[in-house]
Automatic annotation (TrEMBL):
SUPFAM superfamilies: Molybdenum cofactor biosynthesis protein C, MoaC. Coiled coil: none annotated. GO terms for molecular function: cyclic pyranopterin monophosphate synthase activity. It catalyses: (8S)-3',8-cyclo-7,8-dihydroguanosine 5'-triphosphate = cyclic pyranopterin phosphate + diphosphate. It comes from the Bacteria. This is cyclic pyranopterin monophosphate synthase. Pfam families: MoaC (PF01967). One of its GO terms (biological process) is Mo-molybdopterin cofactor biosynthetic process.
């Protein structure tokens, strides 16, 4: 791991986003069923999974530092034949939370895939990206 002991503790924020796209008929069925499956609420389960993943990022990605997180928020909204996911993570630390935000989005998307694959395997997880990062040496995004 990179030595961050000499870095200043600052307020750090990262926002990542992603999307899972469904065939039109599958998405219409999901909307009709209020995004509930036989396993339960698709969006609420994905939010909980994403939050758990954010908290476990340093266990999943070998060179990530464990961080004391102060906020995690995952929002999932319907798009055009898609569910759009956004994950915001905050902490006061010596290193940023970009990997945590990206892990949260990825895990939420994978959870949605798992909960809807019985309807179709023609699902696409896409556009996972860092939208914004603040704190530390440089800021990124709008």
């Amino acid at each position: 791991m990179v030595d961050v002991s000499e870095k200043e503790i600052t307020s750090r924020t990262a926002i990542a986003s992603g999307r899972i796209v469904f065939p039109a008929e599958v998405f219409k069925q999901l909307q009709k069923d209020d995004f509930l499956s036989k396993k339960g609420s698709i969006t609420q389960t994905a939010i909980i999974a994403g939050i758990q993943a954010v908290k476990k990022t340093s266990d999943l990605i070998p060179l990530c530092h464990p961080l004391r997180l102060s906020k995690i928020n995952i929002d999932i909204q319907p798009g055009e034949n898609s569910l759009d996911i956004e994950c915001l993570v905050k902490c006061n630390e010596r290193t940023g939370v970009e990997m945590e935000a990206l892990t949260g989005v990825s895990t939420a998307a994978l959870t949605i895939y798992d909960m809807t694959k019985a309807l179709s395997h023609d699902l696409e997880i896409s556009e996972i990206k860092l939208k914004k990062k603040t704190g530390g040496k440089s800021d990124f995004g709008a």
